[in-house]
Design goal:
Helix content is 84%, strand content 0%. It is mainly alpha-helical. It has one domain. The mean pLDDT is 94.
Length: 264
């Protein structure tokens, strides 16, 4: 079902998702002598706010049987607005909480803290989305190649529909799709580093609080096209290009914050 060449591409994608944050962290540590704690706090904060708290909101706004959830699910543009704003609000609030109370200024006054945190936040997202997905695909492909369908079924949670979806994904997967996914994760990590600089400044200087809502809105704008892709209204290539456009704009703005607005 899956060629050896395709398996190599999947391994490369999974390895990339781990090597990207580790490589960035090592480079940042060597060049700036940055502390490691903000990296781990960033990773933990992403898990709590994006993977635990945000899905609770989705249960209420998207999955409950209410007039609001029906309206959001029926209208792709309302769904796009909700999805983007939910992601921006939860993740940027997590950043703000981390910089105010989990990474206290008296212990981590350096502006390098913002970048270290961003690498951790974006890095764990890459590992848990791209890396774990490709690892699961490799495992399912190996089981199916051996004729061990029960093991493949257990890998996807025992759902026959889920296994059928994964099987279809494996059949349609191409090297180009893997490369595109790696590029998308690269852009996302850079965006998270930039957003961390904005929120760091908002959390450390009350006079600069407007950077927090700016980060929420910028995060939402970056994520909104993905919601339209999920509804079949935008091609994936447009979504990826848009993410990089927003990421590069954010990096340019964050560089000014990092170099000029923050204390050295």
């Amino acid at each position: 079902m899956v060629s050896n060449a395709m398996r190599i591409w999947l391994v490369a994608g999974a390895a990339f998702s781990a090597a990207l944050p580790v490589g960035l962290l090592v480079w940042w540590r060597v060049t700036r002598r940055a502390k490691l704690t903000p990296f781990f706090v960033g990773a933990l904060t992403f898990v709590v706010f994006a993977l635990v708290l945000e899905p609770l909101a989705h249960r209420f706004f998207l999955l409950s049987d209410s007039a609001l959830s029906r309206a959001l699910n029926a209208n792709p543009y309302l769904y796009m607005l909700y999805g983007g704003l939910a992601a921006g609000l939860f993740e940027e609030t997590g950043r703000y909480v981390a910089f105010r109370w989990l990474i206290p200024k008296r212990r981590f006054p350096e502006r390098d803290t913002a970048v270290s945190y961003g690498i951790g936040h974006g890095g764990v997202e890459a590992a848990l989305t791209l890396g774990s997905t490709y690892a699961m695909l490799l495992l399912v492909a190996a089981y199916l190649a051996r004729g061990n369908e029960p093991a493949a079924l257990a890998t996807v949670g025992g759902q026959a529909a889920a296994l059928a979806s994964v099987t279809q994904m494996l059949a349609s997967l191409t090297p180009g799709a893997v490369v595109l996914a790696m590029l998308e994760r690269g852009g996302a990590v850079l965006l998270h580093i930039a957003l961390s600089c904005f929120v760091f400044l908002a959390a450390r200087d009350k006079r600069q609080w407007t950077w927090y809502p700016f980060a929420v809105l910028l995060h939402a704008v970056a994520d909104m096209p993905a919601a339209l892709y999920q509804r079949g209204l935008l091609p994936l290539g447009v979504v990826e290009v848009w993410l990089w456009v927003v990421a590069l704009y954010a990096l340019r703005s964050a560089r000014k914050c990092y170099l000029e607005a923050m204390d050295p």
